[in-house]
C-alpha cells in the first residue's frame, strides 16, 4: 500500500483530470443516446427535454469547472512547496467531483432543490480551496 505522504500533487491532479474527462464523456454519450432514440412524431412528455437538459449540464460544467481547475492546479503547484500534506488536495478533488456529478444528474432530471444544494457544496469547496491557497501563499517567504 502506498504511503499518503509519497503521493505527488501532479499525480492527484492527473487523476482528477481523468475523472473529470470521463464524467464529460459519459454526459456526451448520454446526449448521443437520447438523440438517437428520438422517433418521428411527438416525444413522450418526460423525455422531450432530455437532450436540451444534457446539453445544459455539459455547458454548466464547462463554466464552473474552469475556476476550480485553475485553483486546483495552483494548489498542486504552490501548496506542495510549503506543506507536503497532499490529503487536502485529495479531499477538495473528491468533494468537488462528487458534488458536480450529483449536480449534473439533478440538472438532467430537473430536481431543483437538490440541484441547488449540489451547486452550493461545489461552490463552497471552490471557495474553501481558494481561501486555503491564499493562506498557504501568505505563509511563504517572498
From TrEMBL:
Chief location of this protein within or outside the cell: membrane
GO cellular component, one term: membrane
Transmembrane segments: 12-33, 66-82, 89-110, 116-135
Superkingdom of origin: Eukaryota
Location in the cell: Membrane
UniProt KW keywords: Membrane, Transmembrane, Transmembrane helix
InterPro entries: MAPEG-like_dom_sf (IPR023352), Membr-assoc_MAPEG (IPR001129)
Pfam families tied to this protein: MAPEG
Name listed for the protein in its UniProt record: Uncharacterized protein
Organism: Rotaria socialis
